[in-house]
Specification:
Helix 1 packs across helix 9 (190-214) and helix 2 (39-46) crosses helix 5. This protein has a domain at 11-44 and 109-214: 3-Layer(aba) Sandwich (Rossmann fold). It is built from nine helices and five strands. By secondary structure, the chain is α/β, with parallel strands linked by helices. Bound molecules: adenosine-5'-diphosphate (ADP). Adenosine-5'-diphosphate binds next to helix 1, helix 6 and helix 9.
């Protein structure tokens, strides 16, 4: 019996600190034809109105953490996590397996629809050990911290101290670079970013094609 070779999903984990340019890079990969699965978007969908995590969240925390529309009440959750630090861990214990399963389902669906490979954007990849196991390569978007700060100020209107506070609880540049197979240095203009994305896209296409027969 003739069987098509099992299609091995070539997955590039994409990460970087806040404001490094992950989303800009992911958009450029998408324009070239890569499928994008974004862990933050998955988490957002799972905890949105009627999302797949909401029944378990309601069961674990009661109705106080659920908005009238049936979504996770993020403000209430932040307050609870502040007074009860174990609450965050309990929420993560509910969410992480669901995020992993939903992410895997979206990657399979993208491959079934003919995507050559998947960019799996995981902002906190350097902070979380588990998510790396299924990745074929890890791509880190890196730039000087001052640029991260000025980009996030321009993007979100946050104060510099606020951006620095967020950066302080994220992995350091060195910690992220330590897990990288590939690095995009995003310290120039968008054209320079686009050129680096194009070079990597060609490399990933070639690697993904080879992986079809070795997976
Ligand atoms: P992240 O997703 O890593 O938080 P973004 O991709 O949203 O970062 O980039 C932060 C902001 O900086 C966005 O407004 C984006 O358009 C802009 N940006 C990213 N890279 C560049 C670049 N090379 N030149 C100019 N602006 C950039």
């Amino acid at each position: 019996m003739n069987q098509a070779p099992m299609r091995h999903t070539f997955i590039v984990g994409l990460t970087g600190g806040i404001g490094s340019g992950k989303s800009a890079a992911a958009d450029m990969f998408a324009q070239l034809g890569a499928a994008i699965v974004d862990a933050d978007a998955v988490a957002h969908d799972l905890t949105g109105p009627g999302g797949a995590a909401m029944a378990s969240i309601r069961e674990a925390f009661g109705p106080a953490l659920v908005t009238p529309a049936g979504a996770l009440d993020r403000t209430a959750m932040r307050q609870l996590a502040f007074t009860d630090p174990s609450a965050r861990a309990r929420l993560e214990a509910i969410l992480h397996p669901l995020i992993a399963a939903e992410g895997a389902a979206r990657m399979s669906a993208a491959m079934a629809h003919g995507a050559p490979y998947v960019i799996h954007a995981v902002p906190l990849l350097a902070e979380s050990g588990g998510a790396r196991q299924h990745m074929s390569r890890i791509l880190v978007v890196d730039c000087p911290e001052d640029l991260q700060v000025s980009r996030v100020i321009a993007r979100n209107g946050l104060a510099a101290e606020e951006v620095r506070r967020i950066m302080a609880v994220q992995a350091s540049r060195a910690q992220r670079l330590a897990i990288a197979d590939d690095v995009i240095v995003n310290d120039g203009d968008l054209e320079r970013l686009r050129r680096q994305v194009a070079v990597l896209h060609a490399k990933y296409l070639e690697a993904a094609t080879k992986a079809v027969f070795s997976g």
